[in-house]
Design a protein that fits this description.
Layout: H1 2-54, E1 61-66, H2 72-88, E2 91-96, H3 101-113, E3 118-121, H4 130-139, E4 143-146, E5 157-161, H5 163-177, E6 182-188, H6 194-207, E7 213-220, H7 225-238, E8 244-247, H8 250-262, E9 270-272, H9 278-285, E10 291-294, H10 297-312, E11 320-323, E12 326-329
Parallel strand pairs: 1-2, 1-3, 3-4, 4-5, 5-11, 6-7, 6-8, 8-9
Antiparallel strand pairs: 10-12
Helix pairs in contact: 2-10, 3-4, 5-6, 7-8
Length: about 350
């Protein structure tokens, strides 16, 4: 009897152990299945993220270190960059150095701390900006420059206009219009920039080829309208006879125009500037200014933003890009397109 009870108990114990073993096995299998599902899900999410990044869905952040936002030319540059950024879904951090190289250095330092995907710089001074670009290089942040070049540092791409060509176009226009004779005034921009240096270089190269053309006054007005007016007032007082004027940008030209008009000498002087900003276009149409050199800033801004985006997308970008510039006079001003 005891033997039968012992056998029965053994059977029940075996059943219980089998049940526990089965339960444990089921839990193990379930745990493995859950882990497999989690791993598969993680891999799927990772793959999805990589696919989105490759397809260009990543939103880039770009720093834009502007040299100034008071000059209409650079306002249009910034607007062009912003337009392209909006079209591409790029977020911009924009700074304004107020034409001060020291402020621009601090601006770039602040942009570096934000860790953008790249930084675009429109330099105040070609030499002073070098240390800032080198700081970007050390931080591993790509740099692109526009309009004014930097004297050093590693730059992915520079986009601008041929400043020497612009100066030559201006010089040739005065030489042709004045038939190779006359007293000429040159108003220069910020001579710490390659743009001012090269516009002057091109202009003087043409004037030197015309022995009967004489530069009677050459002064710096820093690409500024108010300074352009002040400088021209002094030049007018010192020179009774002036035939032609070249201002290295339209802001200085428009300032000089105010001085010329106030002196009642508008009919005496043939004037040409550079940039083709809106106010100069109006002055040409009104017959107050004879010409300018078109270097549309809006399209410069769009071009640099598109180049930065292409670089971040892994596409090839040219190291140096020169955009087209052209002479604008009353003959073709109505056909000129400077914005979208």
């Amino acid at each position: 009897m005891r033997k039968r009870r012992f056998l029965a108990a053994s059977v029940l114990l075996g059943v219980a152990l089998a049940s526990l073993t089965a339960c444990s096995t089921e839990k193990t299998v379930a745990t493995k299945q859950d882990t497999a599902v989690e791993t598969t899900t993680a891999r799927t999410e990772e793959s999805k993220a990589k696919t989105e990044a490759k397809s260009g869905d990543k939103k880039y952040v770009v720093g834009l270190a502007m040299n100034t936002q008071t000059n209409p030319f650079f306002v249009d540059v910034k607007n062009g960059v912003q337009k392209a950024a909006d079209e591409l879904g790029v977020e911009l951090y924009i700074t304004d150095a107020q034409d001060d190289p020291t402020i621009q250095m601090k601006d770039v330092e602040n942009l570096i701390t934000k860790k953008p995907d790249c930084i675009i710089i429109d330099t105040c001074d070609s030499d002073a900006i070098v240390s800032s670009i080198e700081a970007c290089n050390e931080a591993g942040i790509p740099v692109l420059t526009m309009d004014r070049e930097a004297s050093g540092g590693e730059v992915v791409s520079h986009i601008g206009y041929d400043a020497v060509k612009s100066g030559k176009l201006a010089g040739q226009y005065l030489a042709d219009t004045l038939k190779g004779k006359g007293n000429i005034v040159e108003i220069q921009g910020i001579m710490g920039t390659n743009v001012a240096q090269n516009r002057s270089k091109g202009f003087n190269e043409i004037i030197s080829q015309n022995p009967d053309m004489k530069i009677v006054a050459c002064q710096v007005a820093d690409f500024d309208r108010a300074k352009g007016m002040s400088v021209m007032e002094n030049i007018l007082q010192a020179n009774d006879h002036i035939d032609g004027l070249y201002a290295a940008n339209d802001e200085m030209l428009l300032g000089a125009l105010e001085a010329v008009e106030a002196a009642g000498r508008l009919d005496e002087i043939t004037m040409i500037g550079c940039d083709a900003i809106d106010d100069t276009i109006k002055a040409i149409k009104a017959g107050k200014v004879e010409a300018t050199i078109a270097e549309p800033p809006y399209f410069l801004g769009k071009a640099i933003m598109n180049a930065a985006y292409d670089y971040l997308e892994g596409k090839p970008v040219e190291k140096y890009v020169i955009l087209d510039n052209e002479l604008v006079t009353a003959d073709n001003v109505d056909k000129l397109v400077t914005k979208e």
